[in-house]
Design brief:
Strand content: 5-15%
Number of helices: 15
Low-confidence stretches: 1-22
Mean pLDDT: 89
Largest sheet: 6 strands, parallel
Order of helices and strands: HEHHEEHEHEEHHHEHEHEHEHEHEHH
Number of strands: 12
Radius of gyration: 23 Å
Length: 372
């Protein structure tokens, strides 16, 4: 028997021993805490990982530990039992706050911490919480704080974010459960959205088109406001339409500007809805036109037909993961730069995306499923 064969057997034996040890560690897991990602889009893309945890630990109670703006994503999620708020700007603020959060986690007596968030802090608070099993990527010099430190390889960084999060499970020899994202809108939320549209004189039977011109990460991700408006005006000349503009409170002026350009049959909801209300309104749309953003991933999770405009960000790792989503982008030598602001001050990647490009895709999506 050759030395290479013996070496392979030795490696296989070691791997089997590691897997056995991990599975032994996972016995009698009754209480799990999942440290959620901090961005809305990332949290939505991590929901397949949360579902897989539930399928592997059917009898365990699963709690999501999330920042206040992310927690609502998990409302109505059948794979989650509780949402625990990480009050980063309140009682969990600063060094003292981290010890307080550790104390809060200890009081819950969790058996396993599953860290979707990659920062050192996430591992530290799970250690302060005296959680026996702590699983996460070995990023940010936190390996010693983890009981199951999953190697972060260059290949992981090239995967779509859905697969990136599933990679934590795979690295810990925990079965995955597909890639579909979970974002559940309740019947009452849908009824409230319908009432909102009625109160804003949206005529039933007309095509409702959602516009999402903002992006929390920075201006580099934003297509030109006037071009959003021009696409809408062209579509309104072809179909019986209503438009609804989505955005955060800080994007109220942006929404106001685009509404003025579009004219009639347009609602500006920027800063006027919470996250769950925005989700329910997107679910009412026949088409959603958006920058790379958290709401883009919400539309993808609900399989709403959409056009996603990409420029500065990496479309191969963060594209909207749905067959109903289409990307419009023009490759440039400076894209993807992954920067919040265009350092060249030219915004070439977004300037290159014309009104015609987006309009023709939008017209095709609508005409394929609608006749005026």
């Amino acid at each position: 028997m050759g030395s290479s064969t013996l070496e392979n057997q030795s490696i296989s034996s070691l791997a089997a021993k590691i897997i056995f040890t991990m599975r032994h560690d996972f016995k009698n897991i009754q209480r799990i805490v999942v440290r959620a990602a901090n961005w809305v889009g990332d949290a939505i893309m991590s929901t397949p990982a949360t579902r897989a945890l539930r399928k592997n630990f059917l009898d365990a109670e699963i709690t999501i530990l999330a920042k206040p703006w992310v927690g609502p994503i998990y409302n109505n999620n059948p794979y989650v039992d509780k949402i625990m708020v990480y009050e980063a700007n309140g009682r969990h603020r600063g060094i003292r706050g981290k010890f307080q959060l550790g104390k809060d986690l200890r009081s819950e007596k969790f058996d396993l911490a599953f860290l979707l968030q990659n920062a050192f802090e996430a591992a530290l608070i799970s250690r302060l919480g005296r959680i026996p099993v702590r699983i996460g990527y070995n990023t940010d010099a936190r390996s010693l704080l983890l009981t199951h430190s999953i190697p972060m390889t260059p290949a992981h960084k090239k995967r779509h974010q859905v697969d990136y999060y599933l990679g934590i499970l795979e690295g810990a020899s925990i079965n995955t459960d597909g890639r579909s994202m979970d974002l559940i809108i309740s019947e009452s939320e849908m009824l409230n959205a319908e009432t909102f549209l009625q109160n804003n004189r949206v005529v039933k039977g007309r095509i409702l088109i959602g516009i999402n011109p903002g992006a929390a990460y920075g201006n580099a991700k934003r297509w030109i406001p006037e071009r959003f408006a021009e696409v809408c005006k062209r579509l309104s000349g072809l179909y019986k339409t209503h438009f609804i503009i989505f955005g955060a409170p800080g994007e109220a002026e942006l929404g106001k500007q685009i509404k003025a350009l579009i004219g009639e049959n347009c609602i500006n909801t920027c800063g006027k809805t919470n996250l769950r209300e925005a989700f329910a309104l997107i679910a009412q749309c026949r088409l959603f036109i958006t920058n790379d953003s958290g709401l883009m991933h919400a539309a993808a999770a609900m399989h709403i037909p959409q056009i996603a405009i990409f420029g500065s960000t990496n479309h191969t790792t963060t594209y909207p993961d749905s067959p109903e989503s289409l990307i419009v982008r023009v490759p440039t030598d400076c894209s993807p730069c992954m920067k919040p602001e265009c350092t060249q001050k030219t915004h070439r990647c977004m300037e290159a995306v014309t009104v015609d490009m987006v309009y023709h895709v939008a017209e095709k999506i609508i005409s394929d499923g609608y006749k005026s």
